[in-house]
Amino acid sequence: MLRLASIIPARRTVVTLVCLVFAGIAEGLGIASLLPLVTLISDGGSGSGSTAQALAFVRSLGVEPTIGFFLLVLVIGMALKAGLVLFAMHQVGRAVADVAVKVRLDLIDALLAARWSYYVRQPVGRFANALSTESHQAGEAYNQAALLTAELIQVATYVTIVMAVSWKLGMLSLGVGLVMVLTLNRFVIVAKRTARKQNRHLKRMIGGLTDLLVGIKPMKAMGRHARFQALFERDAEVIRRAQRKQSFARHATKALQEPILALCLAVGIYFALVVWELPAGEVLVMSLLLARTVATIGKAQQGLQAVRIAEAGFVSVADAIDVARAARETAHSGARPTFDLGAAMRGVTFGYDPERPVIANATFEIPRGLVTTITGGSGAGKTTTVDLLLGLNEPQSGEVLIDETPLGDLDIIAWRRMTGYVPQDLILFHDTLEANVTLGQPEFDAADVARALEAAGASDFVAGLPEGLKTVVGERGARLSGGQRQRIAIARALIHRPTLLILDEATTALDPETEANIVRNVVELARDTGLTVLAISHQPAWARAADHVVHLAEGRVVSVDRRAAE
Ligand SMILES: Nc1ncnc2c1ncn2[C@@H]1O[C@H](COP(=O)(O)OP(=O)(O)OP(=O)(O)O)[C@@H](O)[C@H]1O
């Protein structure tokens, strides 16, 4: 509840609360007028105790306490209450939308600002659920919390009135209300637990399904997709059982309140008529007050139950935001990087588990304007080296230097903007070829796109497509061949004229001739524009073209060949 309060728009909440308090007072006045009204109707206006005081109070205001006067107070009180509650709920409706949107934007902001190691540990599908279901539930939690507040204010109003009429009756109402709340609290706890359980398993289902769909092709190809059905069925069954239990808990809370209320009424009426020997008219009104007080306490308990149910989604998405925020990248400020000399690794050691280094005391240069190729066997640490160079991972010891300045002292975002990067596991977005190259940035025109495609050796195949640049590439680029995807990814990395182009096994899917063309284009770019190239490759084409070859084995630099660079 407190976490929910921290994201609620404060001004709107205050306005809502003030309206609800005044609505409570208006309703209180309306209901309080019933007692003198009944007295006037039944015994002509004398009354006893609090009724007599109420009549005297009205007379002291210079108003004659007639039946018409109290009927007017009743109608005005109730009308005022309705108007104020309507206004308050209108505010709540707007706040609900604000809360859901705020949670979604906070989540997206936290996710985009997180450091690379964070994404590696997260199942992607988890965020789809957080963005849709859980964020929606956060809004619902606010809605239910507002309704609960309204009900609690109503409880306070009724208790005040009942206490003013008779403190014994007030204590009786509170006592019975308390017994009811404590007896039925079990169902509130069940509702909360089952809501959390449903949420957990739904998250697992969505996460698992997203993962499966991303890698569905080999599963289909090997005919092994069907076995996943059983895994989802297990989660679905848990959700079904939890939902049933939750439904029962909600209905039980409501249904069992009624007999408790009936019992309370019977006891109340008995005490009033037989023990305290109060007049029948007053007892009637008091019974009404008692019934409404206890019923309002019951409604508040149902409200609490609804909050507990909706809260499960909110807690889950709030946790996701907290975890992502804790993994926020910090080194965003610092000096603007230059690249006059090039980059270097000096005695860099890094391990995903610090006890087991993947890169050990690596030292080598990436000189400006030259083509450097890193070679080495699978798992030697080539991609990890690139991640260190881009500041996606930080060394445990040693330094990554850009123009002799440690990366940690530089504006890391500005540094990354100076690079063009084609990863090993490249992914295209489900959009047009053009959007995949420009990434939707409006500063690139048709000439920029044509230049990048040409350098990436993609112009001919794009021109041959019926819809050309407007061709939609399908999910993760599935409608293109592996080699075509690689060329589009290279064009994307070149369009913003990077200072350093990083190609991580970026031409592995190409035939030797196409690869040779791309290598030639990139080398020419390096010669003509001063572009620095870092290519990770097992392919002989890149080793042949390189000015500088760094060979890695088990995370160690075993040789540096500066053939052409000398
Ligand atoms: N996120 C990660 N968490 C833990 N270990 C990792 C992670 N990424 C890579 N590794 C491990 O680090 C080592 C180096 O991996 P890296 O991807 O850098 O190798 P590589 O030389 O690029 O290999 P390949 O040529 O097969 O792509 C491997 O043993 C790998 O299992």
From TrEMBL:
The UniProt record lists the ABC transporter domain at 343-564
- Primary site of residence: membrane
* Localization per Swiss-Prot or TrEMBL: Cell membrane
For this protein, the parts annotated as crossing the membrane are 67-88, 145-165, 171-191, 260-278
Example GO CC term: the record gives:
plasma membrane
Task: Indicate the segments forming the ABC transmembrane type-1 domain, all copies.
Answer: 14-298
Q: Which keywords fit this entry according to its UniProt record? A: ATP-binding, Membrane, Nucleotide-binding, Transmembrane, Transmembrane helix
A single Pfam family, by name? ABC_tran
Q: Which GO terms describe its molecular function?
A: ABC-type transporter activity; ATP binding; ATP hydrolysis activity
Topology in the lipid bilayer: Multi-pass membrane protein
Which family is this protein grouped under?
Answer: Belongs to the ABC transporter superfamily.
Descriptive protein name: ABC transporter permease
Organism from which the protein derives: Methylopila turkensis
